[in-house]
Amino acid sequence: MHSSRISRLPAASRTAEGLRPETPAKADHAYVTLVTNPDYLPGAEALLRSLKLTGTGADLAVMHRGLAPGQLARLRALGARLIAADLLPTSEGFDRAHARGALHARAAFTRGGKPDFHTPLDNFIKLRLWQLDYDRCVFIDADAIVLRDVGKLFQMPEFCAAPNVYDGLDGFHRMNSGVFSARPDPRTFRDMLARLDQPGAFWRRTDQTFLQDYFPDWHGLSIHHNMLQYVWINMPELWSWQDIRILHYQYEKPWQDHDKAHLLRPLIDLWRAIASGLPVPDLAAQARPAA
Asked: Which domains does the chain have, with CATH numbers?
């Protein structure tokens, strides 16, 4: 059943088994990210700083698991509403099929390097966004930064996402789940669970493949609302600093030392400036990718 045909419940009546918010919501809309291990903490901090620079009045919600009290304190200090989130209640067979080793053996990432701390099964926690006590949400992966105000995304319909463009035009036919708009509703969440964990289910790119299947008529955002860093290397003609709103560091992370750092140095320097607490640099003055 497509969620657009599921009647909505008012936010006040929602319950959320598997979620434990630390504090009440302050707004009816939120930017939401997910942090499921300490290695993504630098990314989440940079994302929160970048969102605060836009002057947004939305809540900044972080769904999390596997973080120590001191690590949570770092997010709290940046204004995050912390929401502990459990893994989804999926079957043993589902969990085995989507464990890191099993998934990468069956559907290896060949176009970039996933860091060792990437845990595929955790990705499905994104679906708990539909359990949240907000009317409108915009999800942004913790390895992205916001360069310009994107508040208009709260007015977008469910479900909006940008295409998965980073090495060829065929990416326009696929969505990337690093940025998307949603309307939380527990009935949608229950319907998702029923669709997700069926006998023999295998979601090649975890939440991304599932969400594209669940929302086959997804509304396309421009690539500038989820500009993937490999565009800088592979498709420089699409790079437009005056239009980019969210920059997403897919595959290798800007807080790591990695073998593509020399190719992505301007983007890494931009991330590190924002992560250090500086304002967004003058984007018009940024270097252009090599043609």
From this structure: 3-285 (3.90.550.10)
